[in-house]
Amino acid sequence: MPKKRTGECAYCGIVGKLTVDHIPPECLFNQRPVDIVEVPSCWQCNNKASRDDEYFKTMMVLKDKAGSHPEAAAIRDSVFRGLNNPRKIGFARAVVRSIRKVPVRTAGGLHVGSATAFDLDLARLDRVVERVTKGLFWRHRGHRLPVEFAVRSYSEEGLREVDSKTMDSVRIVVEPVLRQPVNSVGDGVLNYWFAFATDEPDASAWVFEFYKDVRFAALTVRDAPFSMR
Predict the structure, then answer these.
(1) 89-97 helix and 70-83 helix, angle to the nearest 10 degrees
(2) Best CA proximity match to 196, nearest among 229, 149, 129
(3) Which of 13, 29, 90, 130 has its CA 20 to 30 A from that of 165?
(4) For residues 134 and 145, what is the distance between their CA atoms, to the nearest angstrom?
(5) How confident is the model at residue 93 (pLDDT cuts 50, 70, 90)?
(6) DSSP annotation string for 118-178
């Protein structure tokens, strides 16, 4: 049962009775680690994230390299049990529909077979990353992200399809962040790097690595027209 207290939600700012949200999502672990980040959250913000968290977990566990991480391997059986749950038949069908075969080629272009790939719902993955960013912003800044700021998140998978100019813009932001000290939660289930701007205290850049494999970048910026897609 989630702990309850009164205060301000770190995500939406509503003041009232709060639960405790966990960053990264608790479902990514076989057992909750002692260093998981606890964030004050209203019931609505906490509850509405559960389906995206489940999707995020499933996609991470099914990814070859990420799925070999000890924590991912430990929860893999629960992922498959969930897909066989009659109450989650719609979710399971969506996952199955996203499966496709892709050709595998050597560096020289020689076809050596095929592999299983998934058509990812990047918007759902990005929503999880946006919440992680807001939670860690609250943890490291001591207050929630101001309402005039927004989180822009970019998956490594999504960035593969952007033009070279956009990639250069991303690289300019990400490379200095990766020179910052690494922070880790749950033995590498989440590694992350971050930096705050010197001239805009609430502007920041983040790099997240889940299961030591899947990376995302995120920015907290004033909510003005901005895109790196």
Answers:
(1) 110
(2) 149
(3) 130
(4) 6
(5) low
(6) E---HHHHHHHHHHHHHHHHHHHHSSPPPTTEEEEEEEHHHHTTS-HHHHHHHHHHHHHHT
User: What is the DSSP track for 71-126?
Assistant: HHHHHHHHHHHHHT-GGGHHHHHHHHHTEEEEEEE-TT--EEEEEEEE---HHHHH
Cβ neighbours, 10 Å, residue 204: 23
173 phi and psi angles, rounded to 5 deg = -80, -45
Q: Using CB atoms within 10 A of its CB, is residue 196 exposed (0-12), middle (13-18) or buried (19+)?
A: middle
Q: Which residue has the tokens 């595998």?
A: 104
pLDDT of the residue at 229? 37
> Do 146 and 202 touch, CB atoms closer than 8 A?
yes
Six-digit token string for 222: 């004033």
Q: Provide the token pair at 101.
A: 């075969």
Residue 17 is inside which H or E element, if any? strand 15-23
* Cα(21)–Cα(24) distance, integer angstroms: 9
Question: Region 193-217: what's the mean pLDDT?
Answer: 93
Look at residues 64, 52, 65 and name the one whose alpha carbon lies nearest to residue 24. 52
Which residue's entry shows tokens 């430990």? Answer: 74
pLDDT at 28 over 60: yes
Q: In angstroms, rounded to a whole number, what is the distance separating the alpha carbons of residues 215 and 110? A: 28
